[in-house]
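Students often ask why we bother encoding 3D structure as a string. The short answer is that it lets us treat folding as translation between two languages. Here is a chain of 1024 residues written in the first language.
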Amino acid sequence: MWLVLLFLFGWGFCHDLAGQRIHSFQYTEADGLSSSNIQCITQDTNGLIWLASGSGISSYNGIGFTHYNQRDGLPVEGYRFIYKDETGRLWAVPQQGHLGFYYLDGRLWKLFEPVERTDSDYQYSCFDVTYQDDNEILAVGTKEHGARIFKDKKWYHVDVEHNGLPDKHIFGILCQDDYLFIVSGKKMLRYRISTLFENSKPEHVFDNAGVLQLAVAQQYRPGKPKDVYVLGDQWIGMLDGEEIKLFACQDKFRLALRNYPFFLSTRDGERFMFGSDYSIYRFDKGRKAVEFISRNRGLIAEGATSVLVDREDNTWICSRRGISRIASWRFLSFSVNEGLPESEVSSGIEISPDSYVFGHHGKMSYLKGNAFIHLNLNEDGKLPDYEARILDISIDKERNLWVAASELGLARVSPGRSVRWFRESEGLRGRTNSVVVSPEQEIFVSTTEGLFQYHQNRFRQVVLNKIPPTSIRKLFNGRNGSLYIATIKDGVFEKRGEMEADFSAAGSPLANNVYSFFMDNKQTRWVGTADGLFFISGSSLVSAEKRGIVLKRPVYVITQDKRSQLWFGTDNGVYRYTGSRLEHFTTRDGLSGLDINRSAGFTDSDGNVWFGTNNGLSLFRAEFDYHDSLVVPPLVSILFFTVGEDTLSSFISHSLSHQNNDLVFKFQVLSFLDEKRVYFQCKLEGFDADWSKSFTNYTDEYRYSNLPAGKYRFCIRAWNSLGTMSETVCSDWIRVKQPLWRQFWFLALVFLLLAGILLFLSRYFLVKRYSHRLEVLVSRRTEMLEQSQKQLMESNAAKDSFISIIAHDLRSPFNSLLGFLDILITDYGNFSDKERLAMLGKLRELAGRTFKLLENLLTWARAERNLLPFEPQVLNISELIDEVLVLLEPIALEKDVTVRYDSEENLMVKADRNMLETVIRNLVSNAVKYSWSGGGVAISNKKDGKGDVVVSVTDQGTGISDLHQQYLFSIDRRITAKGTKNETGTGMGLILCKEFVERNGGRIWVTSEAGKGSAFYFTVPGAS
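And here it is in the second language, the structure alphabet:
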């Protein structure tokens, strides 16, 4: 059956022009790929491009590549597939290993459970996912172990012995509804998933020979049946019930089994890309054409591993050497590599459908189908190339070509390519620069000597009344027998019989330097000049800006396609006027060169537009042109916004304080038609009156600083290289609050306060006569107010003390805790279990001591109403100092400061334990802080003659100046200084020490010299 279908469907297919070069963008490791060995590609629902490569999984947003590793939940290894299932979930499949696959959940990759462990690693060849009752069904094919199916929470094996597979090597696998299709041994088998392991044999075996791969359209509707497409070694087809309906024929391509792996890709079921590591083909079902694409046509490699046609119709071709992206199939190019005799194409015309001729320097090239044939007019080579340039070509009804070949003269080339020359002996004088055959078959030639007309095998000079003969540049046919003559400096002339009319631009020498002329289908006469585009109005040349076309550069070629669009060849590429906008095409769009030659642009009978350039020949294929209604706009999304170090969602409303008024919006604009020509504008509604200026897609954030109070919404819109605009995307509303002094309740409170003051003053003046009687009462109230103020100051001082205690007493232990935790986190793998256990023990001990300290501070806070409690008790001061040193030891070690403690044993004191511990901790902490790395701190205690215990803390650090010493313990002149490693403090530590020492009946003093260190002493009452 398949042979009959192959015959019926195959007879009409043909190759495209395989010799033309396709314009592509290429990506390798030099462009940011983690590896040029790309195995698979897909596009997610947000528009990001995802890649599986020999070194991991990556995504691409048009600006740069993001690579995923262990931090993102993905082991660093080679990956064979990146797959988007019908729900939009992304799956990553390793190149080989156990049955363990990863899926993307938010920003993290997660391992799909369960993982099946086997004795040997699998090499994966194909992968698919479907869902039944919201449960995942995974199907994976291997190179040597058949297929594995995950269903009902467990893995099943599909093999040769039990399931009828013809071979252990699985080429393709596909889940469609309740069907499982497997390609093995160049056969396709169909199983029912629901009964696969009850009835282990295939439900149907397709007898088509040479099946290699399966695919479904990338663009399908979830929940709708998906057509299944099949690739054979000599055909493409679609599954039609129990048979395969074939599309392409065996004589157009052949895929050898040794070229495995094979790929088949289609976005819409109309256009297909297929092949292997060694070959790439493109099949257009509507055009019935199979096109061979290879490296010499502009790709980075000869074959491919995977192909994606994305949402914008960009074709991404992945290979083991990188990625080739074809943004458009519109432009095809020819160069010397494709058969031109040289890169410069100076002229050209269509001889007949699918047959063309082009001029170069002394040579002509005929293009028929895929092949070029060259004709050398400068055979003896006596003239240099620039003097033999073929400046113009025209054709008569007998299909003779008339060729203006500069110093070589005028040539008539017959259809059989015999050449006859016309020079001075035939009446033609001067250097030939243009030739035209009129519809009435009159032949006119212009030279540096004037205008000549062919008559009876000779040329006679035409008498010109208004036209300077030596000023003629090029000739153009008009209508009704008219001839238009473009001149170098005198504008353009129309000659009709003996009548001559001139058209020029007054006062504009550049505009009178004319290169091209064209009359469109609306009878508008367009003129291309050195000063841009003009049109003829009355007897003048008028700038095309009057018609809405702003083109202010030399216009060498003007032509019109079948859609009535005007094309202009310039010195900077090609412009197209669609009737509403002017589009610009350059080498980034596939044009072979930027400088268009004046006789080398024309529209052929199929509506395709040709341009000869300084760097080759370009063909714009009308059938592949974009249609505005089909061009999708860029995908625009606002990801989040940041305020300081906080990251906030842009999808919910927020209310921010007046201080949080610096906003940075992060967004994403995705269009791959040309990543470097994606533009966007931003606007903050409530702040901006209009849209911002246009930016290119080199940044992904927009910042607003110092916003006043108000209600705002961030909006963004973008457009691609074709000018297609996206919808406007906006965040939710963001409110920046008024500052406290501008809020309603605060203003109301101030108003009430002022009203109260005014009322008080009025009453004061009204009762002033009673002041004497009220003096006593006022005096009493004054005393009460002073007492309240004193209590308030004491309360504030207590609060300040409490805050300072927290700042001083908690910073050090928590720094130690964080330091140990940092070491454990960053160098976890560098320690043994025993070492880690020891470190955790130290952490537990340190945390316990810190918690105890925090408990003491909280006890003080609970006693705030009665100020700080004072509970003296008998203490062993040596033990207390040891406890403090254990707490501060990590800080000293980190700074490389040695702490030495000399003590008389069993010295007992009577003091409040919390206050005494705070004094010792502050003094030792300060000594370490102001010591240099490698220095030392000495602590000692002894009894004096009065029965008190004197404790000293001595360092060899920065010391204290005489000026600072006198204010050191003063509460109204706090002295702060940074430590030797820029450590900071509140300046309250020593004030608290003085307060606590004196509260316990002792005194504190210091001796110090700037640059040489300090010694702090304090006494505490001794106890027996």
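Translate back mentally: Residues 771-826 form the longest helix (56 residues). Keep this in mind for the problem set.
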